[in-house]
Design brief:
Blueprint (H helix, E strand, L loop, with lengths): L1 H9 L15 H11 L5 E4 L12 H9 L4 E4 L1
Parallel strand pairs: 1-2
Helix pairs in contact: 2-3
Length: 75
């Protein structure tokens, strides 16, 4: 993440990273946090453990469904 932050800074892109933990729905925590901070974009990682590469995990699917802003999913 440090290289990504440095590249963003050198290109005058504001980048903020957060680790969000929750005892309840992490999907709700992520989407509410993004909404409350007026996020422009969410980037969500997946493990892609399935042999069906087109399938997303439940967290990524939920964030895509409920986020107020665009979501990029990366493996």
């Amino acid at each position: 993440m440090e290289k990504i932050k440095l590249d963003a800074s050198l290109n005058h892109v504001e980048l903020r990273t957060e680790i969000i933990q929750s005892e309840s729905s992490v999907i709700n925590e992520i989407t509410e946090y993004a909404k409350n901070t007026n996020a422009d974009l969410l980037v969500v990682g997946i493990r892609a453990a399935s042999e069906f590469r087109f399938m997303l995990g439940s967290t990524a699917s939920g964030v895509i469904s409920y986020a107020h802003c665009p979501v990029v999913v990366v493996k």
